[in-house]
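On clarity, I found the account of how folds are encoded harder to follow than it need be. What matters is that the chain and its backbone geometry are given together, residue for residue. The format is easy to grasp once an entry is in front of the reader. For illustration, here is how one protein appears when written out as sequence plus structure tokens.
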Amino acid sequence: MKRPKRVKSNRERSQNPVWKILRPIVFGTLAGAAICTALLLVLSLVLVAAKQLPQSLIQPITVLIAALGAFFAGYTAARMSGERGMLYGAGSALLLFGLLFLAGLAVSGESISAFMLTKGLIMVLTGAIAGILSVNKKSRRK
């Protein structure tokens, strides 16, 4: 008779080196995606309320929103890990960029362009900087 698979405890999962690395990156990316979603919703409300906004402003605003999301993703990931801020920050920002790229590809058929690569580079650099700032921030323990 086959034994049922044993469910791993939280302690066993936390000792798994792959899970230890991926957990902060995934949670940081989800936090960054939530910030991007909220900011894009605000942008859509502004666009509806303004009725006339120069078309040339939309791309820079979306890059700014993506950079803010990457910053938050990198900060969150590095804060969770407590070490290697630049690596965790850049990793979570890169994963967030991948998600945004796939979403853009699925919705609008957006392809790889110089603008898209520049946006990705800005996001990764912003996430890495946020990771460094997060790890170097002093905690307020009393």
Summary: The chain has a mean pLDDT of 83. DSSP finds five helices and no strands in the chain.
